[in-house]
Amino acid sequence: MRTVIFDLDGTLADTSADLIAAANACFNGLGHGDLLNPVADAATAFRGGRAMLKLGFERLGHGGQAEIDREYPRLLSHYRDGIDRETRLYPGAMDAVERLRSEGMAVGICTNKPEGLADLLLHRLGIRDVFGSLIGADTLPVRKPDPAPYLAAVETAGGDAARSILIGDTVTDRETARAAGVPCVLVTFGPDGRGVADLGPEALLDHFDDLPEIARGFLGAA
């Protein structure tokens, strides 16, 4: 079966404001105030919790791996408490997903967000049942850009890796697709804009309205 696998943060949904808020809650708890900006630092938010903590501590001129590791569980707790306060699906995302499904394609999610948090967010957004698979950062012993999570997402969705594509937004997704030997489509509506073209994806996605046609171009007819 033809299969389209999506990243979550920065691809299907703009989660940056809630992620930044969780990191800032950690820094506030340490008496430093808000060290990250939800707009200027959105790209870092999409690279994960530890990346946000690292950036904040760097701005303080200190902070090593031990401090990041100490604060990371607190960040996850803060994030769980406010996981859908500001998060929004990108325009046209679910219309495009439903069109793919109506054409007989399987759809799934492969994210480096912990699976439990990803599952919670998808349920809060009311879209969990739409996707045939959800593989998170801790579902397997490895995470993206290792190809194993992607391949597991395809298999769990009932698809065929040889007729699959990955939709993402960062270098991690680009490297994952390359490792799995599948086409990569990177969205241009994230904080990096069309700068993602420098990563050499097989295609760029400017709006979700264009996704069904792009998918058919790579995966062919049913």
UniProtKB/TrEMBL annotation:
Catalytic reaction list: 2-phosphoglycolate + H2O = glycolate + phosphate
GO molecular function: phosphoglycolate phosphatase activity
Signal peptide range in chain numbering: none
Superkingdom in the source lineage: Bacteria
One Gene Ontology biological process: DNA repair
Listed EC numbers: 3.1.3.18
A cellular-component GO term for this protein: cytosol
Xref: InterPro entries: HAD-like_hydrolase_sf (IPR050155), HAD-like_sf (IPR036412), HAD-SF_hydro_IA (IPR006439), HAD_2 (IPR041492), HAD_sf (IPR023214), PGP-like_dom2 (IPR023198)
Pathway this chain belongs to: Organic acid metabolism; glycolate biosynthesis; glycolate from 2-phosphoglycolate: step 1/1
NCBIfam families: HAD-SF-IA-v1 (TIGR01549), HAD-SF-IA-v3 (TIGR01509)
Stated family: Belongs to the HAD-like hydrolase superfamily. CbbY/CbbZ/Gph/YieH family.
UniProt protein name: phosphoglycolate phosphatase
Species of the source: Aliiruegeria haliotis
Organism lineage: Bacteria, Pseudomonadati, Pseudomonadota, Alphaproteobacteria, Rhodobacterales
